[in-house]
What we know:
single chain; mainly alpha; 7 helices; 80% helix; 0% strand
Amino acid sequence: xxxxxxxxxxxxxxxxxxxxxxxxxxxxxxxxxxxxxxxxxxxxxxxxxxxxxxxxxxxxxxxxxxxxxxxxxxxxxxxxxxxxxxxxxxxxxxxxxxxxxxxxxxxxxxxxxxxxxxxxxxxxxxxxxxxxxxxxxxxxxxxxxxxxxxxxxxxxxxxxxxxxxxxxxxxxxxxxxxxxxxxxxxxxxxxxxxxxxxxxx
Length: 201
């Protein structure tokens, strides 16, 4: 009965709603962020950081609004993870291009994120895969690390605090890398269990 009610609510939610608007806004902000990152100068880097933070906030808000106001739509289910991955992965790639992050870290995260996203879409035919327990932790660590590396701390602080904040950012990236891999393995295990259970049935 709950599933039926949820389906009715999802179908009745209008396509044009505030949650979807925030998702589209995040998609628009991604190329703006990329363009700013490709420019030179610390002030422009600060502007890119502000755009990234604004886009990250929309990621938090659209999900909360969609759930609290019953604004979940098929468009949102598809566009939200695309916008999320476009934002974070472009940041990782640009940080590597800029020499602030090792390429192997970016490659591992890209392979995991894209691979698990494709896996979850494929598994929708069989069952909805629950979000990994470490998913929120992974996202938080990634955001802390990315923002820490993006921010031109030298504009505000002398060298000692700047070096400390950069070290914290790298520590967050390292922790995010571990959680990213662990949660990726967890998703694969979930998919195998679902496949075996349905195969047995």
